[in-house]
Amino acid sequence: MDRRTFVKSFGAAALTVGGTERLPIIHTGARSAASLVVDPTPKFEISPYLYMQFMEPLGTTDGSVEASWDYAKDDWREDLVAATSELAPDVIRWGGNFIRWYRWREGVGPVAERPWMYNLEWGGKETNRVGTHEFVDFCRRVGAEPLMCVNFLSDGHKEYWNTIHGENRTGDANEAADWVSYANDPDNAERRRHGVDEPYNIRLWQIGNETSYGDRGFPRDEAIQHTIEFARAMRARDPSIQLLGWGDDYRRGGFTGDYWAPAMLDRAGEYLDYIALHMMGMSPQREDTVLRGFEYQKDPERAWEEMLELTGVVERRLKEIREIVDAHGPDKGIAITEGHVSFDPHNANPILQEWLSAVYHARTMNLYLRNGDRVKICTGADFAGTRWTVNAVQIPVPRGQSFLLPIATIMRLFNRHKGSHGVMVRHAPPELDVTASRDENTVYLHVLNTSYRNPVEASLEVEGLAIRGGRVHEIAPEDPRAYVDRNNTDTFVPVEKQLPPGTTTWRFPPRSVSVVELDVAVATAMGDVLSATSSAA
């Protein structure tokens, strides 16, 4: 059956209208502590855009876009394309802080005529060898949807209106609208002059980036006014595009809880499909933290515990933003368009190459899927670079094989093995963080064993369905400090194990991340409903 038939077969009452029901793990006394019980009723359709990465030129700070281009072949590095295809992100976003001074026309047309630009935050210069055409081409090669972030009057940062080099680097609503036309209008003369006859059909567009961070940009009311202006101009060129508007909290050195989302949705909500925020600034919670420098190496177990604690910040912020969005109706999604931890040294702590970081990554990804009725786009890392360990993909320079860091390994595992609809975990052992989904004949469990020392054996049950067998895709290195680098690229490749027919228990190793695929048989009553619906269809 297709997805629509699958959902209809359970009846409209089985679904949460408007997608406002979350999927908590419910711990009740009615079950054995070792029971892992799933209610297979589909609650919401999982977004096709859920697992996202973003690409940003980072200048001299971390060779990212420039390091991704093979100038000898004048094409993308083959090893980066291969690694990204393995990661298989749903969406890749062209964005980041650089969008405040990015002029998109400098990155289109004949390569020899493209001017270079100063990288005004990250240092150095950018050649603009990679622009709209090259970025969309990369996305298509790896099976991702492109998402363009537009220059939103430099997010109100006036230093980009007249830089130290005497340039005006700000972009207005008409410039953003012209980019939509260039990308999507089949008859756009400018794109056709550049030798591209077919439109790019870019559907996802974000208005601005981190607009509420600090006092140098727009105040809230002005940002909302300009969001409406940009949205009207861009939709006038292509009404079918989907727009992301900024809704994160106002920050001055930390989280304040003063989210822009309520006012943004009240005044500009009719123009927006998603409210965007960044899950950034995830810094150590303890004053005597071991998550600075190399201190974690002296006490790996405590580092694991601290990283698990840090997911509580993600959970709290996610709860806050979804309560705001819930209050504004069923038609708005949450888009987490950037997100990673922030340890010293800045964006380059080596723990993020080790399995010790898996507890943060896996639980955060589970939190996003558990709230998948609202979270439609999520990002757990920057995309690709040469130095930062907050990247998903590491690019060795000057040559070598690009490889996936632990966060990318987990995102790949969870994205490859998931159903079409989220379902509820009714009960799970307290050490296990579990999120579930399903399609017609398979239930998928994303399982993190948060225990550093102990395995957890759980009995598996899907209410009303018989488990016929299945598979377990498991990442469980014996050494919690197992790592990846350019010489050890396959450390965290999942091991597939069979779940034989009749097996209803599984032992999850300590510190493991697994996907359990349960092949299920439909009980008689539900089977009658499925058969009748399929026949009618």
Describe the structure in brief.
It contains twelve helices and 24 strands. With 537 residues, it is an alpha/beta fold.
Question: Can you characterise this structure?
Answer:
By secondary structure, the protein is α/β, with parallel strands linked by helices. 26% of the residues lie in helices and 25% in strands. The chain has 12 helices and 24 strands. A 9-stranded mixed sheet has the order 22-21-24-19-18-17-1-20-23. An 8-stranded parallel beta barrel has the order 2-5-8-9-10-11-12-13, surrounded by 5 helices. A hairpin with a 3-residue loop joins strand 18 (432-438) and strand 19 (442-449). Helix 7 (220-237) packs across helix 8 (261-268) and helix 9 packs parallel to helix 10 (358-370). The termini are close together. The relative contact order is 0.15.
List keywords for this structure.
537 residues, alpha/beta, eight-stranded parallel β-barrel, disordered N terminus, disordered C terminus
Q: C-alpha Rg, in Å?
A: 23 Å
What sort of overall outline do the alpha carbons produce when their principal axes are compared?
A: globular
Overall average pLDDT: 91
Question: In percent, how much strand structure appears in the residues?
Answer: 25-35%
**Main sheet strand line-up:** 22-21-24-19-18-17-1-20-23
Give the N-to-C terminal Cα separation. 9 Å
- Largest sheet, if any? 9 strands, mixed
Class per helix and strand makeup: alpha/beta
Please give the share of residues in helix: 25-40%
DSSP strand count:
24
Please outline the helices and strands:
Layout: H1 3-8, E1 35-45, E2 51-55, H2 65-68, E3 69-70, E4 75-76, H3 78-87, E5 91-94, E6 117-118, E7 125-126, H4 132-142, E8 145-150, H5 173-184, H6 189-193, E9 204-207, H7 220-237, E10 242-246, H8 261-268, E11 274-282, H9 300-326, E12 333-341, H10 358-370, E13 375-379, E14 382-385, E15 391-394, E16 403-404, H11 406-416, E17 421-427, E18 432-438, E19 442-449, E20 456-462, E21 465-475, E22 495-499, E23 505-508, E24 513-522, H12 524-536
Parallel strand pairs: 1-20, 2-5, 2-13, 5-8, 8-9, 9-10, 10-11, 11-12, 12-13, 14-15
Antiparallel strand pairs: 1-17, 3-4, 6-7, 15-16, 17-18, 18-19, 19-24, 20-23, 21-22, 21-24
Helix pairs in contact: 5-7, 7-8, 9-10, 10-11
